[in-house]
Amino acid sequence: MYINRNIEKCILDASKKYPVIMVCGQRQVGKSTMLNHIKEEKRTYVSFDNRQVRRLAETDPKLFFETYKYPLIIDEFQKVPQILEDIKDIIDKLGYEGKDNNGLFWLTGSQKFNMMKGISESLAGRVAIYELSSLSQREIDKKDGKLFNPDINEIKKEKFICKDVDQIYKRIFNGGMPKLFSEDIDREKYYADYINTYLERDIKELSSVSKLNEFYDFLVFIAARTSQELKYDEISKQIGVSSPTVKSWITILERSGIIFILHPYYSKVTDRLVKTPKIYFMDTGLAAYLCRWSSSKVLQHGNMDGAFFETFVVSEIVKSYYNSGKPINNLYYYRDIDKKEIDLVIVDAESIYPIEIKKNKDPSNPDKNFPALNKFGLDVKPGLIICLSEEIMPINRNCYLIPVSMI
Fold this sequence. Notes:
alpha/beta, 14 strands
């Protein structure tokens, strides 16, 4: 069973304007499945996971393109990065001849670190880049995709079906990997196989990782600290590797789509702010598996219930940016040295929207830190408390409870 992805329209529209579309993201989130689902009949699919196909592209790229022609989907293209020069030559030649060269190549891969090395040099101005994550709540519920808008007047227009706490934590526990929804597959086995594949195929190929067992321990350690501040020295001491190694491994997790790093919001107005980023797993099911939570009920009542609830909300909002094809350049958190913290702030040219995330139906005084944003000189808009409320409910004129089911 195929689940429609909210990003499909963005890709099809961009394919009419750019010669190359690149879709990157975490392994097994459905990149090639989606592209094969939306492709035209004449577009061919090849994968550089196939050793013979890869060898042909490496040894005789001209024969490779004569064989498979274009328009073309190339899966795991970063395994033959030199192919980008040949793609550039084809695109430019058609352009010089006055022929339409848009939508010729759709590229996918799970190693954004390697994928981006040649893109900026070879295909600058010729490529539209998109990130695909595991399934969002809206995709699972078969709702149209839209960028999360924190304006309360826009939120009030949204229709939703309320989910209770058990339903929410079941979704958090299972995560959003497409195969878990499209096939009858055991969750534990799926994630065990996923980790082995990720370590053996993606991580083993990166020269900065020499010991997979140490990297696995690091991965578990990071999963147990989802939604917390990212302190490299502290992680280094705990797992026994150098701080530069920790930074390198964090970069690997970020660029392979496993984690999202949320930066703090600050300006020159004050120096009394914490400038340490926070870290979030993009798929809560993977994080729950790594932390060895045995069921959604155990997770719901465990000591990480709030951390996973916050991770779920943040990752859903991040996915809304990915699925809308929008850059994430206005999403932050706030914390000062007086320990006043706001889980999310969304900033535009003149306004700032405070958002708190609470695992309660009726949290007490949740907007107490919102006035701290007044120092920035922006228009502080009505804040949101994303929680387990069953309906949109004003706390006061400047703060509203928002059901988590709505995001």
